[in-house]
Amino acid sequence: MLGRVTAAWFSSPTDARERLAAQGYLADPATATTTFLAGALDKPLLVEGPAGVGKTELAKAVATATGAGLVRLQCYEGLDEARALYEWNYKKQLLRIQAAGDQAWEETHDDIFTDEFLLTRPLLTAIRRDEPTVLLVDEVDKTDVEVEGLLLEILSDYQVTIPELGTVVAVRKPYVVLTSNASRELSEALKRRCLYLHLDYPDAEREREIVRGQVPDLDERIARQVVDTVGRLRDLELKKAPSIAESVDWARTLVALEIGDLDERAVADTLGVVLKHASDQERAVKELRLPR
Ligand SMILES: Nc1ncnc2c1ncn2[C@@H]1O[C@H](COP(=O)(O)OP(=O)(O)OP(=O)(O)O)[C@@H](O)[C@H]1O
Ligand SMILES: [Mg+2]
User: Which ligand is the nearest neighbour of the Cα of 61?
Assistant: First the structure.
């Protein structure tokens, strides 16, 4: 039954690039190719890289570009099966048991472990949907290793086993995107099941396009200044280098303040938009010789 319905996600890397771009997501050639392949090979896509380089956004853009629904599992420390997969609705089960009165236990037992008493969480939701679905497992490195175990059955067989109900097999395989900041190594078993994409800061030209795409009121010259300055800040090996998200915020700030030239004074005055640690700001003031 596996893959009874196969959705055509993208027809080629070019198609992926164009349709993502139409949603405002500008993919480099490696990203476009891997995004196409994940759909064509029905393989989960593991996207790794620093904060704010467009990992989460890629999954969202794939969903909007293909008209698929987005199901998101946000990972965090302590996330467990009951939050990720499913849990039984104990309250409702108890009420049912009470209402059963003298009914034979076997009968009641068969009643309360049915769909009606199941609370589905994102992973099971994604497997059961019969509409095209993008499943985003966001920040998978934040979970405990045990959660990776849960993911393996889904990522390799697109199915979930519920002891009381049996195995739920996906009617339609979701397009799966996992993101990670690489705060810890993911297991080899998990990696083996995925296609891997390393996202990093884009080159200056692409970053200018991204910034200008999101802040249309920004003129070409300031866009160049923003991206160049952000590039210089990234070279400083700061505690937290500015990401694409910060370049975009900086551009918005300059438009809001009607600053027509990003000179040293303007950089110094708006540094808090791009650098969020006092030590990083001090470093930047010193290295870029900014006025205090
Ligand atoms: N290729 C791109 N095209 C268009 N916008 C982009 C691109 N990459 C990043 N962005 C912008 O950068 C912002 C941050 O991206 P996103 O939230 O996906 O980062 P992330 O990699 O998931 O970071 P984190 O690890 O902090 O979650 C997005 O909201 C988007 O505006
Ligand atoms: Mg993210």
Answer: 1
How far is residue 244's CA from residue 233's CA, in Å, rounded to a whole number?
12
Each residue of 206-232: pLDDT tens digit?
999 999 999 999 999 999 999 999 999
- CA separation for the pair 225, 264 (Å, rounded): 11
Distance CA 169, CA 156 (A): 12
Q: Could you report the per-residue pLDDT of 177-203, keeping only the tens digit for each? A: 999 999 999 999 999 999 999 999 999
Tokens of 234: 């990234």
- Nearest by Cα to 69 from 153, 125, 148: 125
Alpha-carbon distance of 127 to 56, in angstroms, equals 20
Closest ligand 1 atom to residue 50 Cα is 25
Residues contacting ligand 1 via CB (< 6 Å): 24-27, 51-57, 179, 181, 210, 214, 244-245, 248
pTM, entire model: 0.91
| Ligand approaching nearest to the C-alpha of 47 | 1
